[in-house]
Amino acid sequence: MDEDGGEDMLDLESLNYDDLDSVSKLQKTQRYNEIMQKVEDALQKGTDFSNQGSILEEDPEYQLIVGFSTATSQFRVGCLEQADVFQSTLPALRTRACRLIAAKSTLAARIDSIRGDPTGKAGRNLLEEIRKKIEKWQEPPPAKLPKPLPAPDSEPKKNRGGRRLRKMKERYAQTDMMKLANRMQFGVPEESSLGQLILSDGLGEDYGMLGQAGSGKLHVSAAQSKLAAKVAKKFKEKSYGSSGATSGRTSSLAFTPVQGIELSNPQSHGNLLGSETQSTYFSETGTISKIKRT
């Protein structure tokens, strides 16, 4: 292996570049001379810039460098960016326009692959379709029309049933007390809140069936409301108060002035409370007395 490597090195050392020139004929061309001259000029400018330490803004090379910045450059979409329909589109719509042009270009390429339209009519139709869609995107949204008022003397709209409607009816339903207040007894004059007859002067507010003496309708029992029962059930399910967890700072040790630290038994305190204090208030043999009316 070492002998083969040594032979390769000898071949490279004995290589004559004139042989390469005779093969490629590149160094004798004018294009090669121009490229090499530009490379030498660029290297010379690089050394000049390093010696100066600064680049002037008037230098065209500086403008080229600034133009290649990612902050000022636009997004590149290939050859589609050079199309007239793309350049005439607003910058805010160019992303959507690029997708549309790419899709239509694919359809046009498929048509050309099978030579389906030698006249180019399909391509012109696709271009016109693209322009119409871009113009449609630029149109403002339709204005919100004012809601017309309902026609007078029209039949009331029938509300469909549902949970929301039932809740609203139950919330705003008329109570039994208001039903009795709005009811009149036949042949009995009504009295107002001012104590005068309504038939005479019409002042005050009448109570209807609630204002009749001896009717027994003033005390109205509260009707059971489904909505109130649901709210009460939801309120009961919520746990208010202590969660049962003890704090880490609580202790059963009590500090007394006599013995210092004293360990107390919490069960003894509970037994004392139940045996002495509560026995004076509650009795196992005592009953609730009931006074009979005469």
From TrEMBL:
Gene3D superfamilies: Nop domain. Residues 1-139 form the Nop domain. It comes from the Eukaryota. Pfam families: Nop, Prp31_C. Its main location: nucleus. One of its GO terms (cellular component) is U4 snRNP. The keyword Ribosomal protein does not apply. It is found in: Nucleus. InterPro entries: Nop_C, Nop_dom, Nop_dom_sf, Prp31, Prp31_C. The keyword Zinc does not apply. Residues 134-167 are annotated as: Disordered. GO terms for biological process: spliceosomal tri-snRNP complex assembly. Keywords: Nucleus, Ribonucleoprotein. Transmembrane segments: none annotated. Residues 139-153 have a biased composition (Pro residues). This is Nop domain-containing protein.
